[in-house]
């Protein structure tokens, strides 16, 4: 991405603005997780239940260790599948604001493989709290024209540079419980997860 575009995105996030940005699975509504006004605005735009948490998007899988407690299962899966279409839910550390996780003691992480998303997060230097681009209860929007029409006047910036989209959403895996629980089946199968965990153990 051009440096001017990255600087523009960073300014928007830093003042509590909401961006639309691509990942390899879906487009996301993103904000700085440490800015309260941004979190509120995202929930309002999406009409999202305040009891539903957001996911932290990172550019380096090792950054997960700054924000969560990582056991042997998570370590093995992080090494194998991230960056990639896996959302892993782990016990959170105090470094994660409670408003991001709806007061819960766990937090989900994504490390996108999409270069555009990674460039944005890396340049900004902080995680991006995000959720899919849609009004709660409706299907995610993955077409820029539709996104502009529905959200163009609601968000502060739309990243137009695309990513190649996967045919499936990310697999959402809760590792705060034993045995683990798959909350959404996606690109990475249960069998793949079990195989890697067994090797890691």
Detail the topology: elements first, then pairings.
Blueprint: H1 3-14, E1 19-22, E2 27-31, H2 36-46, E3 55-57, H3 64-67, H4 72-81, E4 84-91, E5 106-111, H5 115-124, E6 128-132, H6 144-151, E7 157-158, E8 171-174, E9 181-184, H7 190-200
Parallel strand pairs: 1-7, 3-5, 4-8
Antiparallel strand pairs: 1-2, 2-6, 3-6, 4-5, 8-9
Helix pairs in contact: 1-5, 4-7
Describe this structure as you would to a colleague:
The structure is a single chain. The chain has 201 residues and is α/β, with parallel strands linked by helices. It has one domain (3-200): DHBP synthase, CATH 3.90.870. It is 33% helix and 20% strand. It is built from 7 helices and 9 strands. Strands 7-1-2-6-3-5-4-8-9 form a 9-stranded mixed beta sheet, with helices on both faces. A hairpin with a 6-residue loop joins strand 8 (171-174) and strand 9. Helix 1 (3-14) packs across helix 5 and helix 4 packs across helix 7. The longest helix is centred in the first third of the chain and has 12 residues, at 3-14. The radius of gyration is 16 Å and the shape is globular. 41% of the residues are buried.
Low-confidence stretches: none
Shape: globular
**Structural class label:** alpha/beta
Head-to-tail CA distance between termini: 40 Å
Total of DSSP H or I helical runs spanning 4+ residues: 7
Secondary-structure arrangement, i.e. CATH architecture: Alpha-Beta Complex
CATH H-tier superfamily = DHBP synthase
Q: Tell me, what is the CATH class?
A: Alpha Beta
- How many strands in all? 9
Number of domains: 1
């Amino acid at each position: 991405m051009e440096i001017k575009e990255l600087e523009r995105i960073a300014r928007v996030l830093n003042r509590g603005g909401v961006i639309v940005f691509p990942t390899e699975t879906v487009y996301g509504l993103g904000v700085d997780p440490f800015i309260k006004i941004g979190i509120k605005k995202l929930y309002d735009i999406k009409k999202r239940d305040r009891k539903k948490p957001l996911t932290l998007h990172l550019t380096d899988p090792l950054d997960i260790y700054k924000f969560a407690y990582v056991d042997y299962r998570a370590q093995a899966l992080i090494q194998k599948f991230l960056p990639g279409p896996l959302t892993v839910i782990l016990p959170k550390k105090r470094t994660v604001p409670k408003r991001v996780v709806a007061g819960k003691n766990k937090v989900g992480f994504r490390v996108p493989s999409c270069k555009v998303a990674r460039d944005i997060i890396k340049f900004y230097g902080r995680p991006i709290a995000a959720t899919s681009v849609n009004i709660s209860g409706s299907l995610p929007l993955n077409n820029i024209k539709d996104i502009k029409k529905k959200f163009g006047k609601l968000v502060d910036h739309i990243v137009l540079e695309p990513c190649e989209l996967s045919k499936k959403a990310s697999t959402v895996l809760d590792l705060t419980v034993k045995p683990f629980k798959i909350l959404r089946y996606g690109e990475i199968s249960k069998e793949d997860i079990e195989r890697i965990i067994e090797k890691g153990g």
